[in-house]
Amino acid sequence: MTIATSASNSITRTSAATRTGTANTSRHDGSIGGVGSLIREWRTLRKLSQMDLALDINISPRHLSFVETGRSIPSADLLMQIAVQLDVPLRTRNTWLLAAGFAPRYSEQGLDSARLAQARAAVQRLLDTHDPYPGVALDRHWNVVLHNQAAAGLMGLLPDALRTQPMNMFRASLHPQGFAAYTQNFDEWGSYLLQVLQRLMLNARDESIVALVEEINTYPNVQALKQSAPGNATAAATEPALLVPCVLNLHGQQLSLFTTLTTFGSPRDITLHELCVELFYPSDPQTEAFLKGRV
Predict the structure, then answer these.
(1) SS3 assignment for the chain
(2) Quick check: pTM over 0.70?
(3) What is the tens place of the pLDDT at every residue in 159-206?
């Protein structure tokens, strides 16, 4: 597994007008126009012009225009070439293939399935090794699917309603009766979480995440956070912070933690592609000593 990073492959830009990636026109139906609009939606999301994307994947802008408008039928390989260039999630790539009349290419095994047993064991081993610091594994909605003992201890602070399975990290962290009630720097940490949630909503195009965003936006503390002037949280800082920590006050004991997000480096399964591991680390010696002393 590797720390998640974003990168784009460098592709030689040529002006070749080769119509590569054209499928049999006998399969043309209404769904093709649908996949074209999906491509256009993601290209717009990535802020790329037709010219830029066409040059990146070595086809003519005219050909790409025809694909997006449904006048040209893309092959499965061309669809995947576009999807890779636009960094489209595996789940959405399957949607594109189905919309164009092709079979899905990516499986979606359950995390408890036999085929993912080794991957699940590796993630749990990573979490257990991370004790006494908290660590969780999250699915595409940021629901907790695996955790270690340190994380279980923190979850015990939550009311039953927020611990209902699956426990959602955004809801648990931002709800006024959740971890937000213990978060001393909620203006900073809450703002960070809202930014992550917004990016997730834009990239996932998932109705469940949209519903979660709408729910969280009704929380009074989130509404107050959005109405507050930006920058107030750090205005009084004497030295710029290297990371935004989550600072918790647990019955008089202050804990300061920063987080890392880790993903699988080369997944071909949707479940593995969407799984991420969030590991919390102490950001000061006092927090480190306290957590190690609880072992």
Answers:
(1) CEECCCCCCCCCCCCCCCCCCECCHHHCCHHHHHHHHHHHHHHHHCCCCHHHHHHHCCCCHHHHHHHHHCCCCECHHHHHHHHHHCCCCHHHHHHHHHHCCCCCCCECCCCCCHHHHHHHHHHHHHHHHHCCCCEEEECCCCEEEEECHHHHHHHCCCCHHHHCCCCEHHHHHHCCCCHHHCECCHHHHHHHHHHHHHHHHHHHCCHHHHHHHHHHCCCHHHHHHHHCCCCCCCCCCCCCCCCCCEEEEECCEEEEEEEEEEECCCCCEHHHHHCEEEEEEECCHHHHHHHHHCC
(2) yes
(3) 999 998 899 999 999 999 999 999 999 999 999 999 999 999 988 888
